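Q: What residues go here?
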């Protein structure tokens, strides 16, 4: 089944209280532990400072981290370092694939040493070899604009998991001036917007009709929430597909 939820201010308000009650103490405890261990954890700092990040993390992870949740085989792509990655690694058979763009490798290795097991592959997800099948595969705040290879990602991930959860971030009326690191050339880039999201979802439904018998197309909207919910023009869609 394909489940989509447009993250509007009203949705944020409906999740916010529960999210903060659950996550604020956990993020604070991890922040203190990370400081003692000398671990820089940028994603944890975001969870401390950004209430909308906590609400989305609640939606993505809370059921997996409740006391009653069974142990699962989970793969996360681009999860960074945070209370959530720490808790997932403690509770589940959890693997993290990370390009480590915000922190250096030693920060990831220090967390592994603290937890007493090796569960992090540093590198690009497209070069990671998937080993067997996962119950849940997660990508939070990675596609389709930090990494635009969402089609390739779905083809790579689909045969190896029962469920995929993502937050998809898209924009309208936005242009990025970026620099190609190899040639130093400036590129003018339009991030994925509503149209690209719609084409992607139509493709997914056509490719996997049994898993996506219908979806709530009313969720596929764009509103400018700059200074209302976010500091930029992003919109976020909660995405979850479960194989039938
Ligand atoms: C915007 S951050 C989101 C971090 C975390 N999931 C969160 O929501 O706070 C994107 C993360 O994806 C990682 N990343 C970017 N490209 C990647 C790739 N090709 N393979 C694996 N990780 C990647 C970055 O290093 C970064 O930690």
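A:
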């Amino acid at each position: 089944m394909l489940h989509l939820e447009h993250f509007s201010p009203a949705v944020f308000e409906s999740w916010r209280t529960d999210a903060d009650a659950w996550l604020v103490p956990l993020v604070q405890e991890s922040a203190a532990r990370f400081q003692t261990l000398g671990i820089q954890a940028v994603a944890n700092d975001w969870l401390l400072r950004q209430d909308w990040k906590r609400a989305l993390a609640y939606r993505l992870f809370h059921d997996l981290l409740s006391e009653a949740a069974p142990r699962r085989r989970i793969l996360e792509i681009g999860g960074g370092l945070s209370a959530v990655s720490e808790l997932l690694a403690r509770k589940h058979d959890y693997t993290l694939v990370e390009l480590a763009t915000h922190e250096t490798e030693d920060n990831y290795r220090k967390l592994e040493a603290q937890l007493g097991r090796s569960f992090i592959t540093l590198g690009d997800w497209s070069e990671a070899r998937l080993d067997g099948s996962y119950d849940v595969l997660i990508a939070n705040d990675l596609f389709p604009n930090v990494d635009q290879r969402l089609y390739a990602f779905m083809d790579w991930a689909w045969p190896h998991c029962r469920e995929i959860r993502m937050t998809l971030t898209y924009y309208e009326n936005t242009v990025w001036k970026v620099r190609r690191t190899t040639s130093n050339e400036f590129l003018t880039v339009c991030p994925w917007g509503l149209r690209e999201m719609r084409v992607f979802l139509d493709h997914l439904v056509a490719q996997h009709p049994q898993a996506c018998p219908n979806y709530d197309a009313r969720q596929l909207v764009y509103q400018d929430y700059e200074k209302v919910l976010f500091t930029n023009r992003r919109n976020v869609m909660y995405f979850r597909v479960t194989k039938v």
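A: Context that may help when evaluating the design: The pocket of S-adenosylmethionine is lined by residues 43, 46, 77-80, 97-102, 124-125, 140-142, 146-147 (CB under 6 Å). The two ends are 7 Å apart (CA to CA).
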